[in-house]
Design brief:
alpha/beta; Rossmann fold; two-stranded parallel sheet
């Protein structure tokens, strides 16, 4: 039995009260699902700027009615301090996921990114501190490593951020450190590396690469790669991220508090190899309808060339033990995209009135 198995047993026996911000988003909805299945009480906050009601509907189907009754939803924005105060009242642990992502989009609108990702973050920190929350766990990002050339990425060696989005995540970590030093408020940051899995949105110009490629392949559309395809990332299945959040929130290791951790699988995959893996998964389902060579586009400004995490510190201090490899995660994601995207394609076809 590993640390996460023990934690799951403890949570079922001793339920806590959790706040998940960004609860209608991809990661937030998975956190909600896991917490409810563990019989926890959950408050969720979202303004639906990025999250979807459909994600909450999906969770309701996946849990039983008694579990769903333990969930209370607040519609609101983290830039509204009063909403943050309301959401934090009576909470044991905050899992702060609310933010706007996308490096290229942040290059176009840095003011909006600062307002939501920095001012909103500070609102949540203050509200959680004032409500005497036990611990504040927040989503950081591998983008904080910026132009530092070292691989694999180690937590105490970061470079200059290369985008406004990356800058907001660096500032989040600085503020979390200040609240620990100035107010003795417990925080832990999780530097996510390219999270993927079911319910990740394939739509939009800035959609993450894995859901976008699944969608393009299933709909027989051209597949585009930014750069030469040898850019590499440490892709991390959502199940590993859920484990990391719950371990970080509840760890009794005092050495774990007040810092950020790499959350990834710990392997590097090029975009060319990723596309091959996605096609392998679809071929097993006789579903890869896009067999043409990919279309290569210019590299995007602000993107880093390679990303690969050293997860030693998370293993040692949090007990983090990622269960799902990239291949494991792609198999699970493929099942979901096959169901949802194939249904969407059929539902969009003209119906025979006869």
């Amino acid at each position: 039995m590993n640390d996460y198995d023990e934690l799951q047993s403890d949570l079922r026996a001793n339920p806590r009260k959790w706040l998940v911000t960004g609860v209608a988003g991809f990661i937030g909805s998975h956190l909600l699902e896991e917490l409810l299945k563990l019989e926890q009480v959950v408050v969720g906050l979202d303004n639906f700027s990025a999250g979807k009601r459909a994600n909450l509907d999906a969770v309701e189907v996946l849990v039983n009615p008694a579990q769903w009754s333990r969930f209370r939803f607040l519609e609101g924005d983290i830039t509204d301090f009063r909403i943050c105060e309301q959401a934090c009242a009576g909470i044991d642990y905050v899992l702060h996921q609310a933010a706007i992502g996308s490096v290229p989009r942040s290059m176009l609108d840095p003011l909006r990114y600062h307002h939501i990702n920095v001012t909103g973050f500070l609102n949540m920190l203050v509200a959680a501190r004032d409500a005497h929350v036990r611990r504040f766990v927040f989503a950081s990002s591998s983008s904080v490593y910026g132009d530092h050339p070292g691989l694999p990425k180690v937590e105490d060696k970061i470079g200059q951020p290369l985008s406004p989005y990356a800058a907001t995540k660096v500032i989040n970590e600085v503020y979390a450190g200040v609240f620990g030093a100035a107010y003795h408020f417990e925080t832990i940051g999780l530097r996510y590396f390219n999270v993927f899995g079911p319910r990740q949105d394939p739509e939009g110009a800035y959609a993450a690469v894995i859901p976008r490629w699944f969608s393009e392949a299933l709909h027989s559309k051209p597949i585009y790669i930014n750069g030469d395809g040898e850019t590499s990332r440490d892709f991390c299945y959502i199940g590993n991220v859920i484990q990391a959040n719950l371990l970080a929130a509840t760890t009794n290791n005092v050495e774990a508090i007040g810092r950020s951790y790499n959350i990834a699988f710990g392997e590097r995959t090029t975009l060319n190899r990723l596309l091959a893996k996605i096609r392998e998964q679809l071929a097993r389902q006789n579903a890869d309808r896009s067999t043409n060579s990919p279309v290569f586009l210019p590299a995007r400004p602000g993107d880093i060339r390679h990303s690969h995490a050293d997860i030693t510190l998370a293993r040692e201090r949090l007990g983090y033990a990622p269960e799902y490899s990239v291949d494991d995660g792609l198999a699970k994601a493929c099942e979901w995209y096959m169901r949802t995207l194939s249904f969407e394609k059929l539902s969009q076809q003209p119906q025979n009135p006869n």
